[in-house]
Amino acid sequence: MSTNNNMPQSYNDRASSTGEADVGVDPASGSFFSADYKRHEDLKAMLDSNKDNLKLEAMKRIIGMVAKGKDASDLFPAVVKNVVSKNIEVKKLVYVYLVRYAEEQQDLALLSISTFQRGLKDPNQLIRASALRVLSSIRVPVITPIMMLAIRESVTDMSPFVRKTAAHAIPKIYSLDPEQKEFCIEIIEKLLSDKTTLVIGSAVMAFEEVCPEKIDLIHKNYRKLCNLLVDVEEWGQLVIINMLTRYARTQFVNPNRYGEHMDNERFYESEHSSQEDQTPVTPEAPKSFTMDSDHRLLLRNTKPLLQSRNSSVVMAVAQLYHHVAPKTEVGAVAKPLVRLLRSHREIQSIVLSNIATMTTTRKEFAHLSSMRHRPTGRGLVRSM
Length: 384
Description:
Layout: H1 11-18, H2 41-48, H3 52-67, H4 76-80, H5 88-101, H6 106-110, H7 113-119, H8 125-137, H9 144-155, H10 160-176, H11 181-192, H12 197-210, H13 216-219, H14 222-228, H15 234-251, H16 257-268, H17 293-302, H18 311-324, H19 334-340, H20 345-361, H21 378-383
Helix pairs in contact: 2-3, 3-5, 5-8, 7-8, 8-9, 8-10, 9-10, 9-11, 10-11, 10-12, 11-12, 12-15, 14-17, 15-18, 18-19
């Protein structure tokens, strides 16, 4: 029986007979990474060209690869040369790439230190901030003095975006060289005195990571932090509220201290006890409590954040009220907590866990205990 030699070959047969690899046009595609293909040669050629439009296109494709999780580290030498590009768009993308790979390619990044230092003087605030981010991403102790000088200059920069980047760089230099803690505290003190909402959240974050025990740094900035809180971005609000909760618990008098003992006695006494059998009230119990004005300022300025769209901010304010608010005002967090129970299951579990804790420690939350038995909660809710 003869075979038909004129039968058309399949695509796989043709590929195996010719030995050619399937190469995609898009370097971010999976077929681009073939063993027989010289990786990224076209991108390197574009980066070496004299045309800004080709460099920009190459950088866009490279950033796209990085965003998709592809390894573009072998392009570092070709990319770092373009940090001196006159095209602002190219330079921005180059710095985005360098921030990602500076820690992995430390030797090559060190060769461009002088270029990054010049970037700190660039007229564009984004370039100055990006240069500082790249410098702080190079985890080499030998350049610590250069980083310290760059941070010191950036703290006094006219742009709040650059000052914010300086605040983010402080924990990095502290983790690289803990002996520079005094320098970091000095810079944090300057940043905490900043009146810009863009900076203050990052400054508090640096404070919490480097020197949370230096509570004296907060004293003179406390009222400003309370007044700016509503205008700070959401994750900055979260950091500040958590810090102020800790501050209030250590610096202010517990507003429920005087009535707590008497309330517990009334809560546990028998319903059938006669009026005559009740223990007379001690002279210390009815002491009046006058809340400090700064304590009241904190409660007043955090209350609007119970309506925040960020569930973490709402939970942070609820935690603050739970710890430092008078028992007559704690009920204000009930409705916002119930509102969070309409969110995703992950958020529901966290909120319900906190409600369970609150209902067991404060009678003011007793009416919320019914929320722990919502029919939509299934086994996780019932277990609480």
